[in-house]
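fyi for ur records
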Amino acid sequence: MRLNITVPPRQPVFVYSIASINVILWILLEVSGNSTNPSSLRKFGAIDSYLIWSGEYWRLVSAIFLHVGASHLAINSISLVIMGGLAERLYGHWNFISIFLVTGIIGSTASYMNIENGVVGAGASGAIFGCLGSLVSFFYIRKKILGKSGKQTLNGLIILALVNLAFGFVIPAVDNWAHIGGFIAGISSGYFLAYRPRTVQPSHRLQIPNIGQNTRLPLLIFFAVSITISLLAIGNSTYEPAKVFPVF
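which gave:
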């Protein structure tokens, strides 16, 4: 039996575009004040619990493209090119950008639900963990078709996720809630988009279906919006504005 596991060649154009936007915004942050300055980050759209509670929900999106310092930008850019690049090649351009934004927004919402007053949050790491989660789903669904190499890749991705999440609990400055929210959303989104019943062709060749064009995408976006609204409602209802102190 012959396995056809060739993935159609796709250049990760959205990954490079997102990385470029991140660099440009970081430069603008540095020029305007400093990318480590909380006030500058707030002006550019970082997560702030009070401002989001006040109605500035667009920060859930804008914070994904902001980074605190050069090292934060460099680490996330490298991770994005590796994880996001593979996800875009496997899932296709539009599925990838949907995964990136859906997991990034849900990661930001998880951060908002847990971030303290006066603390700002920023970074693409929630969306990057979302890409990692989508890869876990992709290789889990195809572990039998891909054989030993597929199982090894799956195990490596799971170990990588667990190690990074463990570090997130140890290092105080890491927004691990965004990582957890993005990773869970990535697993769910990836499984939803990648799953297809395995079919055997007359030639007895097992094929990995092309998921570049996926009719499930609108439904995924609908569910993602519903989940985000639900999480925001929980965050808004549990938020205590009386504890806000002046930080501006």
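The CA atoms of residues 12 and 85 lie 5 Å apart. thats all i got for now
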